[in-house]
Structures are given as structure tokens and as C-alpha cells.
Amino acid sequence: MTGSADPEVSAADDDDIGNRAPGGRARAVLGYITRALASDPEAVVIDTEESGRVVRFKIHVADGDMGRMIGRRGRVAQAIRTLVRLAGSRDGVETNVDFVDD
């Protein structure tokens, strides 16, 4: 099957010559989940740091949304980390997700 595009990954996740950026699929999944959970999706900011095959995501959200991202006993945060780790493994990268309280 040729020519099929992955709808979860945008063109912004590709570099200038069309190669998939490391962690592109993981970033797309993370962005989708965090914006869906946030009461103010426009305030969600995802910073990315790459070091070889390890990609670290730092999530910044509006003041009232941090509790939604972490959940009771950290269950929501752990579920987000698991899904992002799975998406990253499809791209061959390790991922770390940190929730930053500004």
C-alpha cells in the first residue's frame, strides 16, 4: 500500500527534505490528548528536547488545567506517558513526558 499518509502526524513533523522528525508521531499523540483534556486548549505548549534517540517533552498548560493533566494519584499523567511512549516506539525513539508547573 503506497501513498497512504498517517492522519495523526502533520507535515510540521517532517523536516525540510521530507524525513520524519524524531518523535513526530509521539508529539502528535501528545498534542491531541493534552488539548482534548485541557479546558483551555490554546494554552497548551509542548516544548521538545532531542538527544539522540531520546525525546523529552515538557508540557505547559493553563493554571487550572494542571490537575486535569495529572489526575488522581497521577493516573492520567501515567496513561499519557504510556500512550506517548507507545507512539514514540513506532518511530524508534524513547520518550519522556514532564508536566511543568509555571
Largest sheet: 3 strands, mixed
Binned strand content: 15-25%
What is the CATH C-level name? Alpha Beta
Oligomer: single chain
Protein model, in words:
The protein starts with 23 loop residues before the first helix and ends with a strand. A hairpin with a 2-residue loop joins strand 1 (45-51) and strand 2. The chain has a 3-stranded mixed β-sheet with strand order 1-2-3. It has one domain: K homology (KH) domain (GMP Synthetase, Chain A, domain 3, 2-Layer Sandwich). It contains 3 helices and 3 strands; from the N terminus they run H-E-E-H-H-E. With 102 residues, the protein is an alpha+beta fold. The chain is globular. 35% of the residues lie in helices and 21% in strands.
Defining traits:
single chain; alpha+beta; GMP Synthetase, Chain A, domain 3; 3-stranded mixed β-sheet; 3 helices
Topology record:
Elements: H1 24-37, E1 45-51, E2 54-60, H2 66-70, H3 75-91, E3 94-100
Parallel strand pairs: 2-3
Antiparallel strand pairs: 1-2
Summarize, please:
35% of the residues lie in helices and 21% in strands. The chain is built from 3 helices and 3 strands; from the N terminus they run H-E-E-H-H-E. It has helices spanning 24-37, 66-70, 75-91, and strands at 45-51, 54-60, 94-100.
